[in-house]
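The records we work with from here on pair a chain with its fold. Here is one such record, which you should read through line by line:
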Amino acid sequence: MGVTIHDVARAAGVSVASASRALSGRRRVTPEIAERVARAVAELGYQPNAVAKALRDQTTGTIGMVVPGIGNPFFTTIVEAVERELQNSGTDLLLCASQYSPQVEARRLETLLARRVDGLIISPCDIEASVPAVLDAARRVPLVQVDRYIEGGGADWVGVDDEAGVTLAAEHVIAGGARSVSFAGSRPVSSSARLRLSGFERAAARAGVEVLPPLLGEFTLEWGVEAGRRLLDAGRLPDAVVCANDEIAVGLVRSLRLGGVRVPEDVAVVGFDDVGHATMCDPPLSTVRQPVEEMAAEAVRLLGQVKAGDPRPAQRIAIAPRLVVRQTSRPVTASVAE
């Protein structure tokens, strides 16, 4: 049997109540008692009973997080950033993946709620179909959305300014000489997919350049390869392609180069995220950098302020992205190269 609070109290020469107060920090004890209890804890190697503490405080010291998939380097990066932020307060992270399915997502949320997590951070996989499960969870525990959000609000959100980011990419390739442009992205089932597509279309329309039909599939490397093949098969290439994420962009560059197309001399390519494969792409990928660490810090900060079923209007925090110019696009004087 492990060391108990009774053993600590006996070693410190104090009552169990005094030892408990000294360890919880909720009620003051004299410096002498606090020192004696701390010394006894160190000597005995006492570890507080996490279950008993959770029952007493009605908290578990855990936060649940649901992302569409951990195979996408962006979600891996944001999960790690959130976990680092939570460690600062001694909070543990329980991670689930929805596998891009609203039905699986709803089950994952129920699983985390059954484990009595103190709050939830979620990147909803579907702007419409995810609404019922996300709103139900937000009524039961504090909840913050990160990166993606559901239609109609209903819960706080922190993410990058998607439209500003894709506008940076479009304006960059146009400034580099592109007169015909295309967009390779995901089908518009998530907020980020919709905003990046619409933002690109508006930026291209403002510039007055020719816009070829968008190539819409998934946020994956495989779709990027397929999108590149479709461009090659179409017989006419755009001067530039703006991609909805780096995975698509890397696959697209690979496919174009295998087809004998020079990047960026024949076709410029810009991605979105600046995680994972961006710097390892051949040539290194120009992209829009998401401020992942800042997004994670804001999400955790907001989670500490939110209350379950809070009737106040949901907060929306859009953080500015940054264009990172490498070698898949043509640099211009105003661009920031890296």
